[in-house]
């Protein structure tokens, strides 16, 4: 019997890689005789740490092979814009991608190629090989509605979105103001804008789209996608909602981890967890405001803090250098809050924390992986978006799914201590918080049902995989 391989091609970002690996694990659970090859492009920018993660997966799951592309020279004058660079780097790697596919097909039958939207440049290569080519959209159905609708928005707007004070009506999602669009979507004169438009059009021509969400969480968006309402320029390909896919924290020892040991001593549902993704950082001034707001709120808290950038500009690069707490927080903050809070430097086992019975709320940057982790564990959120598509995610989470409260953010992105204090207290004790707490518990129940035997996500995943075995 000829061996079968699925080739997966994520972008270098840690969140995208982890989601793709979790999809790979799911494939192997249902089709253990399939081999997975995950292609790794050397990142030309900071992505968050991935080496340890890749080594762990390689050691524990032999059926997953990480194929590392060689480092190639970046041409002089190449774009330094991170969004454009994320798309363009894969254009440079297309010849290597082609050769890799040829080498794999000499040993095994490729049943599917699964791309990330940032690896869109590879679509034409895989189609030239006549290979079924899918996209794994690491966000949810609402985000996918907005993304696939971009070409339509492009057609109906004469200028750049950034220059217009507009509210856009996108099928099946709440109205989105122009200020909530990601940076790459708003300037028609930037190459990255064309990348996103081209990717949206290409995704609509693919063999299928796989989304990390579940029907019960985003029913209105799921229906719109299946009815083709988001792609009036053409038909939407088959879309498979197979989530929630979240990475586990098996490497964390609860008896040794500082955060989990501290949580063991706290009352049930009493702690607010604050964490802002693998690359989110704040200025010193903002960190001080958060500290003041938390102290005034009188709520128990567990806060993951990264060092602010040296130049005091907020960047999307993780602050992994040593954190000098005394130089950042108000004088005496740690001593005064010793009985009510714990500050952790740089990293904490987020999934294990969200699953702990003492955690009752989550101040989140609205990254999709973090969102799913919170929903699965029934933890309500305060939505504090920082970059990328997170402002749009906030709209979905607050207005559509109703599992989060919106934090008051000033036009320049600053959040006052008063805003932190009020929203944290509301989440944990208020009436609006009660409604959100009840809603997220219902969504947690639906998430577990979707991934159980016979659940919607498992049924859709079986349909997807069965299409490969008949090829």
UniProtKB/TrEMBL annotation:
Keywords: Glycosyltransferase, Transferase
Record EC number: 2.4.1.-
Keyword hit for Ribonucleoprotein: no
InterPro entries named among the record's database cross-references: UDP-glycosyltransf_plant, UDP_glucos_trans, UDP_glycos_trans_CS
One Gene Ontology term of the molecular function aspect: UDP-glucosyltransferase activity
Domain of life per record: Eukaryota
Pfam families: UDPGT
Family: Belongs to the UDP-glycosyltransferase family.
Protein name: Glycosyltransferase
Organism name: Lactuca saligna (Willowleaf lettuce)
């Amino acid at each position: 019997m000829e061996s079968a391989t699925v080739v997966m091609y994520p972008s270098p970002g840690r969140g995208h890689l982890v989601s793709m690996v979790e999809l790979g694990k799911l494939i192997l659970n249902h089709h253990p005789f399939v081999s997975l090859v995950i292609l790794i492009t050397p990142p030309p920018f900071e992505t968050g740490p991935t080496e340890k993660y890749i080594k762990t997966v390689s050691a524990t799951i032999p059926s997953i092979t990480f194929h590392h592309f060689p480092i190639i020279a970046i041409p002089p004058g190449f774009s330094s814009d991170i969004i454009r660079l994320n798309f363009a780097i894969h254009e440079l790697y297309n010849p290597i991608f082609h050769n890799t596919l040829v080498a794999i097909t000499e040993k095994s039958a490729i049943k599917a190629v699964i791309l990330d939207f940032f690896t869109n440049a590879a679509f034409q290569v895989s189609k030239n090989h006549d290979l079924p080519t899918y996209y794994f959209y690491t966000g949810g159905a609402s985000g996918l509605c907005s993304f696939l609708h971009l070409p339509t928005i492009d057609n109906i707007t004469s200028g750049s979105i950034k220059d217009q004070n507009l509210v856009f009506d996108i099928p099946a999602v709440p109205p989105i103001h122009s200020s909530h669009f990601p940076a790459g979507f708003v300037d028609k004169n930037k190459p990255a804008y064309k990348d996103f438009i081209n990717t949206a059009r290409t995704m609509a021509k693919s063999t299928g789209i796989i989304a990390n969400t579940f029907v019960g969480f985003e029913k209105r968006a799921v229906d719109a996608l299946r009815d083709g309402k988001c792609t009036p320029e053409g038909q939407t390909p088959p879309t498979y909602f197979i989530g929630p896919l979240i990475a586990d924290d098996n490497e964390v020892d609860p008896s040794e981890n500082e955060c989990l040991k501290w949580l063991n001593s706290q009352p049930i549902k009493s702690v607010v967890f604050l964490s802002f993704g693998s690359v989110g950082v704040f200025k010193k001034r903002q960190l001080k405001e958060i500290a003041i707001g938390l102290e005034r709120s009188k709520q128990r808290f567990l806060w993951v803090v990264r060092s602010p950038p040296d130049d005091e500009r907020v960047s999307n690069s993780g602050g992994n250098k040593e954190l000098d707490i005394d130089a950042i927080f108000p004088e005496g903050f740690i001593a005064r809050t010793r009985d009510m809070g714990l500050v952790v430097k740089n990293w904490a086992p987020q999934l294990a924390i969200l699953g702990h019975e003492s955690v009752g709320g989550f101040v989140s940057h609205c990254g999709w992986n973090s969102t799913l982790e919170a929903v699965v564990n029934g933890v309500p959120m305060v939505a504090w978006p920082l970059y990328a598509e997170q402002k749009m995610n906030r709209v979905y989470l607050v207005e559509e799914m109703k599992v989060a409260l919106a934090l008051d953010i000033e036009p320049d992105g600053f959040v006052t201590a008063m805003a932190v204090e009020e929203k944290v207290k509301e989440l944990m004790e208020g009436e609006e918080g009660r409604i959100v707490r009840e809603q997220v518990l219902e969504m947690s129940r639906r998430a577990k049902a979707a991934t159980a035997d016979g659940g919607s996500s498992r049924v859709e995943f079986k349909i997807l995989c069965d299409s490969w075995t008949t090829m």
